[in-house]
Amino acid sequence: MDVRKIDETLSVSPQILAEDLPRLRELGFRAVICNRPDGEGPDQPGFEEIEAAAAAEGIEALYLPVATGMVRDEDAVAFGAAIRRLPGPILAYCRTGTRSATLWSLAEAGDRALSDILGRTRGAGYDMNGVARRIANGGRTPTDTADARFDVVIVGAGAAGISVAASLRARKADLEIALIDPADVHYYQPGWTLVGAGVFEARDTARVMGGLVPKGVHWIKAAVAAFEPEANAVILDGCRVVRYDRLIVCPGLKLDWDRIEGLERTLGRNGVTSNYRYDLAPYTWKLVGEMKRGRAIFTQPPMPIKCAGAPQKAMYLSGDAWLRRGVLDDIEISFMNAGGVLFGVKDYVPALMEYVERYRAGLNFFHNLVAIDGPARRATFEVSEPGQPVRRVETEFDMIHVCPPQVAPDFIRVSPLADAAGWVDVDQATLRHRTYENIWSLGDVMNAPNAKTAAAARKQAPVVAENVVADIAGRAPVAQYDGYGSCPLTVERGRIVLAEFGYGGALKPSFPKFLLDGTRPTRAAWLLKERMLPPIYWRAMLRGHEWMAHPEPIRAAE
């Protein structure tokens, strides 16, 4: 007997036998639903046999047969009525459990998000992507066949999406390109660190989305619900369908605030802030300006996260502000890092440690924030030191800057495009999907082992554009991505350690060392971050001008 839980009310399983009913009673089940027609298989017990065994155990039984591969809309309605009427918990079964899982998915379509349904059934071992369009349509079979179709569809209009759209247009202006994103506003997220330091104004990091979509690109202002890669289709909320010849997936990642117990209800008050949100970065600077004494905590969750240096950037700039105001002696700074190192590329660590010592910051590795009580000003960390039992510690704070855990968006994690960890599965050089040859991905959502930064997307966009155009022409991939990422580590106001690196931590400096030594804090790097990078982002990167980002050709194997 293979019982698989979907939710608190329903579990599903393959065919059960009469002798399984006592065990089902012990497990707490109060009703069973048979979704398998009698006589479907030679070794299958009839429903009457199951019903009699269920009655002997005080379990209610219902016969709701569905022919394999033919789950009708009315079947799903009847199943939904049954699970509302029957006492729970309920076990539904068929030959493998798939029909029962499908019925539940369609019955719940009007009340649950598509990603929740796909996630729960996937967790039970059933892939419902084949009926995703019906789920998105409220559990009903769609009748609208007037689908839009484009040469290239791009999912996500962040830094990666707009850049790759512009790069494609620059290479092949006759392409019919659609950019799918529901957002009204586009943010220059790398600027939020400086908003939290009082250098930038938050409003200067935001632009209206409509003004940034490249000319000639169709903007579909909608959210993606699911993918049907076998049918070359993207399903939008409301069951609208967009078809493509080639697909580029770059919706960014999801900030998983809910994973930290109590965090969301205290963000923006009680001394709890984060530069990872547009509306909270100004609060960071407000807290820094008001703080004269006490304890300030800066957290970093397990990788991957976007801009891995951002949590410590907030610490350095806050420490610098307190040092300049003469109050640092009365402030205790603690950096709580779920990882085991200060920064993943060792060449930059010596310079960073100088500033850790300057601000007398305590480094606490293997400390992962799991809960926060804002009114009590208390944070709980799970400590997972190598070779030691996991333990929890609580600490008080006057200010805490939180970097949230980060995951791929729900509609990506439950899709056929994702790897086991939920990220889009690509070849790390060509950025082409490993299974579907007409799909590419870039930006924060794909699984190449590179830093998730806007600078990485700036390098990735031309690579994807080159390879998509080559594919249209019937050629093999021609460009490769070397893992480049950049993290301008703002160690004090006016100086930056400009970390630039590729796969395996290899240094990838953009400038000669005599002009800018990235392993040391420099004013030149600060000037680049404050004055040059924002206009480069708005006026070059998002417009397809590939300044210092020309794609590297694929080298023949030696």
Number of strand elements: 28
Outline the biggest β-sheet.
7 strands, mixed
In CATH, the architecture of the largest domain is 3-Layer(bba) Sandwich
What's the tally of helices? 14
Low-confidence stretches: none
The coarse silhouette is globular
The N- and C-terminal alpha carbons lie at a distance of 54 Å
What is the structural class? Answer: alpha/beta
Looking at CATH, which topology of the largest domain would you report?
Answer: FAD/NAD(P)-binding domain
The overall number of domains is 3
Quick check: average pLDDT?
Answer: 92
β-sheet strand percentage? 15-25%
Write down the CATH class of the largest domain: Alpha Beta
Task: Provide the gyration radius in Å.
Answer: 27 Å
Helix content: 25-40%
Specify the CATH homologous superfamily of the largest domain: FAD/NAD(P)-binding domain
